[in-house]
Amino acid sequence: MAANRRKHANTVPVAGILRWTVVALFVLIAGLGYVYFKNQQHATGNEIKNLERQLADLTTQNDIVRAKISQLSSRSYLQKRLADGFIHMTPITDDRIVRLNTLPPSRNTAAATSGELRAVSNRILIK
Question: Where exactly are the structural domains of the chain?
């Protein structure tokens, strides 16, 4: 009978081993998730930094182009190009001019010619 007691006392504690295995697995998964998300955060930060640098470069290029457009469309530059003969201009004759703001004579011509704003209605009347 003493042999039976000894055999029962040497059993492997499966519940304890299983519990610690589950805890270790949970810690392992949490650690891998933490490392993955930290790497993703660094990669996203680097991408944002590169995009901000590109935006700053494009803004600088845009400012340079705007300054060049302003310079090339200035009156003095255009007069210089006209004097050089690069720009060819022909005078506009009176028969080619169309005047759109001619007003028929009205009782109150002073109000009509002063550029007074008048209300406009775009309502469609449905009958």
Answer: 13-84
